Amino acid sequence: LFGIDVSGDYVLVLANCNDYGLEVLALGNMEWKSVKGYLPGDQVGFMYFYAGLMAVYFVLALWYFCGMKMYQDAAIPIQKFILATMILGFLEVTFRAADLIIWNVEGVQSDVVTYTALALGVLKRGSSRCLGVMVAMGWGVVRDTLGTALVKIIFLGLLYTGLVIAQEFFFVAAEDVQTISSTEKDELLDLALLLLPIIFVVNLIFYFWILSSLNSTAEYLRNMNQTSKLRRHLRLRCLIITSLTVVAAWFILYLVQAFTRILTQDQLWVMDAAMHANYLFVLVGVSILWRPNSNAKDYAMQMELPAAGDDENELELSCVVPSADDMAFDDGNDPDHPNGVRVDGAVLG
Prior knowledge:
This protein is an all-alpha fold and 349 residues long. The protein has helices at 41-70, 77-106, 111-136, 148-174, 182-223, 227-260, 269-289, 296-299; strands spanning 302-304, 314-316, 347-348.
């Protein structure tokens, strides 16, 4: 047992000084433990970060759930997806924090907790991509339903989740060097790398779908002079652009780190933490824009009339407001209604 008084990086070296290289047999267990526990030094910051993130997710989900209960008669389906994504995020960071705490106390990781945290993280990423398409298409703002598009979104999200879980399984299985040969390890890594371009393509489909839906919905609202709804959608677009800017900055820092090593080993956890914080930033923004309120259920069924002076008038419709996909006649030459969109049962507020 060797006592270490100074913190730092240490290397244990076993040398055989015999010229003929006689075999050396080493028996026993070797454990490395700091004053804070068994957790490696580059993971300690993550343990505290996950614990703090867990508290933030809990407060956010509790606030949103209480709002949905308070206005349950006006709840809309997309709010359930937002709450489900919050719960997945909370469960992921909870299991990740528990995994590091167990490792720190007992010296070994729990396979059940580790793999559960991994699966929850993949589910959260898949759910967030689906949610991004839903809000970009204006669900709850210009549409009260997504129709068959909802099935396509969920299918693409499940496809992404399944591919990433399979890839992570291959990576984890390849690291189990005690039960597989080097040949089997190479085969598993090849399978994992084979899925990489497929996952990349699915990600591109999601991002293109989100950006194109943002632009088309904003254009529709601008053409219909829906300034209030357009303002909300422009805030969403600003939110997503800010998030993409953070991702671009992160990627640049990653490349700089690969060549210059500006961050020490103990500071590398900040890179992954930044991505978790960026994800939470977008989720908080979406939850505020689509927060529960007494008017949420009717919001997509309302159209704003041009304001006279400083007065803002709303036209509350008893029929479904035409969405961007319904505007097949952009020039107003609808053969059934040549003078514009027909409105039944309108009530001027």
